[in-house]
Write a structure and sequence with these properties.
This protein has about 300 residues and is mainly alpha-helical. The protein is built from 12 helices and 2 strands. A two-stranded antiparallel ribbon has the order 1-2. β1 and β2 form a beta hairpin. α2 runs antiparallel to α5 and α3 runs parallel beside α5. The longest helix has 29 residues. The protein is globular and about 60 Å long. The protein starts with a helix and ends with a helix.
């Protein structure tokens, strides 16, 4: 293996771990402790440890089949542990825990069934040939879990447990709306793909007629809601948890979500006039009536 290539991969590992350490330290300030160590620091360490343990059999078997399931399981295990292991949690912490558990349970089941049907994930075809690169993907998943859940987990471990106010109900409403949108969009696309005649077609019905990526819109709205519920429990350095929805937005709109799917769709249907018209008339992310996006542009 090229030495320069190895050094670049190790640099990625170092940067990811440095970011995780920074978030863990900041989020642990003013929080509950375990044997003198902030619980949130323990939580972040556990999130990465689970990924690295799962990487071992994944590398030995050269498979990515339980990658997504491991991510969802990490959310579930840690959140359940926080709910059952921390005393004197307020209603905000309880609601946040339930929200993360419901979301992770649903998403994990959906992704597991999807990869069981497809048999593989093409994103990993080249990655899993390189042990270090494959390891970095699992490490990045640890960072994804940590930052995405940071608002909820920091608020749950905070020694400040604020009473219910308007922000709680507004955040809960946003979470519910986002969850319903995401679940509905995923269900509509799954039904569409289940039709053998539609296997190579692109979906333009239901929520997908209002947005090219309605599931991602729902995901973003949901984590904004979580941050709003968590906010009154955060103080000082704990406010790093508010990176959660920002991270989700950047990840889905600039890095691994929409850009990857747009390139894949362009490669598959880019020459199809019907697809070009669909993209012209349909909002990229925020749901709008068909045609409104093209007029606004």
């Amino acid at each position: 293996m090229n030495v320069v290539s190895v050094m670049k991969k190790l640099a990625v590992t170092g940067i990811v771990l440095a970011l995780a350490v920074g978030v863990a330290w900041a989020g642990g300030q003013g929080g509950a402790t375990l044997a003198g160590v902030p619980v949130f620091v323990v939580v972040v360490a556990a999130a990465f440890a689970i990924q690295w343990l799962a990487y071992i059999p994944a590398q030995l078997l050269h498979t990515e089949r339980f990658f997504d399931a491991t991510g969802s399981l990490t959310y579930l295990v840690i959140t359940v542990a926080l709910l059952t292991g921390l005393p004197d949690q307020g209603p905000r912490a309880l609601a946040l825990g339930v929200a993360v558990i419901v979301w992770a349970g649903r998403l994990g089941t959906f992704l597991f069934l999807r990869i069981r049907t497809s048999g593989s994930d093409s994103r990993f075809d080249a990655i899993k040939r390189s042990p270090l690169r494959f390891f970095n993907v699992w490490t990045l998943q640890g960072l994804w879990v940590t930052i995405t859940a940071s608002a909820a987990w920091i608020a749950m471990t905070s020694t400040t447990q604020a009473p219910l106010t308007f922000s709680f109900f507004a955040g809960a409403a946003l979470w519910a709306a986002g969850f319903v949108i995401e679940v509905t969009a995923d269900a509509q696309k799954s039904r569409f793909r289940a039709d053998p005649s539609q296997r190579k077609a692109f979906i333009t019905t239901g929520l997908w007629s209002w947005s090219q990526h309605p599931n991602y819109f729902g995901e973003i709205v949901m984590w904004i809601g979580v941050a709003l519920v968590a906010f009154p429990n955060l103080a000082g350095w704990q406010l790093v948890g508010l990176l959660s929805p920002v991270f989700v937005i950047v990840l889905l709109t600039r890095i691994s979500g929409i850009p990857l799917l747009q390139r894949k769709a362009e490669a598959t249907w880019g020459e199809d006039p019907a697809f070009q018209e669909y993209r012209r008339r349909t909002s990229l992310l925020i749901p709008m009536p068909p045609g409104v996006a093209s007029k606004a542009g």
